[in-house]
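User: Here's a chain of 406 residues. Predict its fold as tokens.
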Amino acid sequence: MAAPFALAFDPWDPAFLADPYPAYAELRARGRVHYYEPTNQWLVPHHADVSALLRDRRLGRTYQHRFTHEDFGRTAPPPEQEPFHVLNDHGMLDLEPPDHTRIRRLVSKAFTPRTVEQLKPYVRQLAGELVSGLVEAGGGDLLTDVAEPLPVAVIAEMLGIPEADRGQLRPWSADICGMYELAPSQETARKAVRASVEFSDYLMELIATRRKEPGDDLISGLIAAHDEGDRLTEQEMISTAVLLLNAGHEATVNSTVNGWWALFRNPGQLAALRADHSLIPSAIEELMRYDTPLQLFERWVLDEIEIAGTTIPRGAEIAMLFGSANHDPEVFETPDRLDLTRTENPHISFSAGIHYCIGAPLARIELAASMSALLEQAPTLRPASEPERKPNFVIRGLEGLSVEVA
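Assistant: Prediction complete.
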């Protein structure tokens, strides 16, 4: 069953990683669901199916609220990976109701729209300063000089992590997120475990400090958050802080560099954006659709489902192809064309359903701030060399983006 797709869909092939969208078009043309033997997953490439499955309660990010590993026909993770799985499994992204509902409700009390809106001046100022430094230097690496430091600093500021400690956050996050790729290696797992232990230990100390001396920050808010007697446990607070940091900057970093590389390769669209900065909001949505930062999202089949006449049994894993869904011609007119004026743009880059990204409003503020600053301060920004793409599939990004300012 997998043989017809072996050449088209290959998440370890550099040519596929460079441009997966033609392979997605082939998958969509060949059907609505495909079993992919190398990862033992069912690939779902169409927008309508992905959108529906994200809201389907017969699927779950976890199965452990209903089944043991053995009951579900799965093998428990190796014991040496326990620190990573304890950290990951207590975050709301990998929980299902009722725990997900309880934690998201409590986190929402500290992560309010008003809190996010109040960050706008800080985000704009920081973006302006970072871009100013890039311009003064005549250029640099857009990834390390602007795209990374902005969202890391913002979420660290929200969490109340002291500036002196922030240099550790990005390496920890990168090592942990390596486990979200398909079939991670033993070395990847070892790095993720070490980062999980170090990050958890650090946050445990910070939480203990905030219990004694509460501040006006998100960790203090998570400690104080309660609802009808419910509170976050220590592990839930640690896992939530790590999730907010990882999810709070990974997508933003990759959206920034993927987006600017797309603009450089579409000079007509870049010229239109430079001529009319009011296009920034629609440009952000279009760039997130055009080269999706999170290409795949997984769900476990908790109760048997059927897609286009194919029965997918309980215990199977579904891989929803966000990048493919965002290029589905049934939803997006001329999907392979970058169109910054696109008004109908129901992309699913922030997911959907109960796991819709809680940080989406903050990500949009950050992306708008950096784009505005670059357009205003660096109107002649151009690439200095061809960038190298990261050898990742699930989290799509560049190793760097060298730019120069004339």
